[in-house]
Write a structure and sequence with these properties.
Number of helices: 13
Pfam families: CTLH
InterPro entries: CRA_dom, CTLH/CRA, CTLH_C, Fyv10_fam, LisH, Rmd5_dRing, ZF_RING_GID, Znf_RING/FYVE/PHD
Main location: cytoplasm
Number of strands: 5
Number of domains: 3
Keywords: Cytoplasm, Metal-binding, Zinc, Zinc-finger
Subcellular location: Cytoplasm
Distance between the termini: 42 Å
Largest sheet: 3 strands, antiparallel
Shape: flat
Strand order of the largest sheet: 2-1-5
Oligomer: single chain
Structural class: mainly alpha
Length: 391
């Protein structure tokens, strides 16, 4: 309740500042136009070599100075409103990150962070900003970034109910969609058929021709759906919205097709459905209060812990049931995997951590018992037969 009240208090000043911005913009625009017109009038008099009245020129210059003075006052007024917002935030909210220490970005992670920022910009439609950011931080415009740019353009068109670009993309990835057992391509064609019919009875022949050209490809998997959507045709002239097929014209279907395209395209191209940058910020916000308390406790106990290390966190961070990455826990050493201790697969199919593999190999070498054996099925294995697992 206290947080809500604080937000409302700050929100009132933000609303007032925004209103002030709008008023100042209009007044400033008018003053600039007025000053420009005065200066242009004086310039025209000089260019036409007419006799220039000194008093009128001085009066014009004075009016221009007055306009500029008023603009300066308005600018100060805006700065004052911004300063008030800052003061209200400090007065209504407690300190933010407390004793939390934010170390420099790990060298190995800087490129990944830049890629996440770049892809976030591209996937949210800020293509020019994304390309410029990638140029400034030295990222190559690889196939992944180009695909993200293309995907953003298609998504923008799909939001405006333009299906052609999305259909072309689905046709270009026909095999990948089949491998993922996706209905996206058929759903897009079905939506296009419905869109043509929604234009009126005079478009019925074109809709039938479209169905003949595209539906046969999906007749094996979607025979029932095709039959249902073709059932719309007899009701075209009488009105489809009051027919048993009116649900095909529900606007919510556009929302569903957008969501389906976003999920499927992300899966095909190897992107996460949500932006990695948004995900990182969300989990960071959830973890920060716990982490702040942990750091404070460590400081009071005079215990040092290197935040930049790759070791496991000494505390549990509750992410509200949402897992943002795959976690492998070694069944032998009871440890979670890490970049330096990844999960490994034995020839028999069982898995354990790299450290457990090393210990097993060292044990059998030291005891002269021959080749190492899997702790579960006792099948022998050599070091060369072990492969890293990727989830």
């Amino acid at each position: 309740m206290e947080v809500l009240e604080a937000c409302n208090n700050v929100g009132q000043h933000i609303d007032a500042a925004l209103s002030n911005f709008a008023t100042t913009y209009e007044e400033g625009k008018r003053k600039i136009e007025e000053a420009t017109e005065i200066l242009l009038s004086i310039k025209r008099d000089f260019e036409q070599k007419q006799e220039v009245n000194a008093k009128e020129s001085q009066l014009g210059v004075s009016r221009v100075k007055e306009c500029l003075s008023q603009l300066s006052k308005q600018h100060k007024k805006i700065q004052k409103s911004l300063s008030n917002i800052e003061k209200k935030i400090e007065a209504n909210f407690q300190r933010g990150c407390g004793v939390s220490i934010f170390p420099p970005i790990l060298p190995d992670s800087e490129k990944l962070l830049n890629q996440a920022i770049c892809l976030h910009l591209l996937r949210n439609g800020f293509v020019e900003s994304g390309v410029e950011f990638s140029r400034e931080c030295g990222l190559e415009i690889d196939d992944r970034i180009q695909e993200a740019c293309k995907l953003t353009e298609i998504q923008a068109k799909l939001k405006e109910n333009h299906l052609d670009a999305a259909i072309a993309w689905a046709q270009g990835h026909h095999q990948e969609l089949l491998e993922k057992n996706s209905d996206l391509e058929f759903k897009l064609h079905q939506m296009k058929f419905i869109q043509i019919l929604s234009q009126g009875p005079q478009w019925q022949n074109e809709a039938i021709a479209y169905a003949k050209n595209h539906f046969p490809l999906f007749s094996d998997r979607h025979k029932t759906e095709i039959a249902k959507v073709m059932g719309i045709l007899p009701f075209i002239k009488r009105g489809v919205h009051n027919s048993p097929y009116g649900h095909f014209f529900d606007p919510v279907l556009w929302t569903e097709i957008n969501q389906l395209f976003n999920r499927t395209a992300a899966a095909v191209l190897g992107f996460s459905v949500e932006s990695p940058l948004s995900t990182s910020i969300n989990v960071g916000v959830m973890a920060l209060p716990v982490f702040e308390k942990f750091q404070k406790t460590m400081a009071e106990m005079k215990i040092q812990w290197d935040i930049t290390s790759d070791t496991e966190m000494p505390i549990e961070i509750d992410t509200d049931g949402r897992n943002y990455h795959s976690v492998f826990s070694c069944p032998i050493l009871k440890q979670q995997s890490s970049p330096s201790n990844p999960p490994m697969r034995l020839p028999c199919g069982h898995a354990m951590s790299l450290d457990a593999i090393k210990q097993t190999l060292a044990y059998y070498r030291g005891s002269f018992r021959g080749s190492a054996k899997c702790p579960y099925c006792k099948m022998g294995f050599e070091k060369s037969q072990v492969t890293e697992l990727h989830f």
